[in-house]
Amino acid sequence: MIGRRIDSPVGPLTLRVTDAGARQVKFDGRLPAEVEAGEHPLLDQLERELREYFAGTRTEFTVPLDPVGTEFQLRVWERLRAIPFGQTMSYGELAEAVGSVARAVGGANGSNHLAIVIPCHRVVARDGSLHGFGGGRAVKRWLVDHESPQAGLF
């Protein structure tokens, strides 16, 4: 795996890719010892698309993904990718969409290693409040507001 650290409006991010696609967008900005820092076209694409997202010029990611998870997690993450930019879905709605329960989809969200690209920040409590996010509640608020500043729903 090849990786790099980038700065972003929500703090430092760690990006990692394989030859198959993006494997990680993590909020700590540290490269683990087993990850080689280097150059790779998919790493460049991932960084470019994230920068465009933060600049407000990208609403969908096209970089190939290479997530690792259980069959259930992969199903949840695929459904997360279908939540349109600027919209949210409750944990209950997500659970219903994948034929499960809210607690299980919450666990799958928490195991998402491709933050922002697989938009788990778009999942909120039934009442619209923000809960549980690997980057912290303030980062989740920033991402939701960044995508729908005119909504004022939260």
Structure commentary:
The protein is α/β, with parallel strands linked by helices and 154 residues long. The protein folds into two domains: 54 residues, 2-Layer Sandwich (Double Stranded RNA Binding Domain), CATH 3.30.160; 77 residues, Arc Repressor Mutant, subunit A (Orthogonal Bundle), CATH 1.10.10. The chain is built from five helices and six strands. The strands form two sheets. It has a four-stranded mixed beta sheet with strand order 3-2-1-4. A two-stranded parallel sheet has the order 5-6. β2 and β3 form a beta hairpin. α3 crosses α4. The longest helix has 15 residues. The radius of gyration is 15 Å and the shape is globular.
The end-to-end distance, rounded to whole angstroms, is 38 Å
Total number of helices: 5
Poorly predicted ranges: none
The H-and-E topology, N to C, reads as: EEEEHHEHHEH
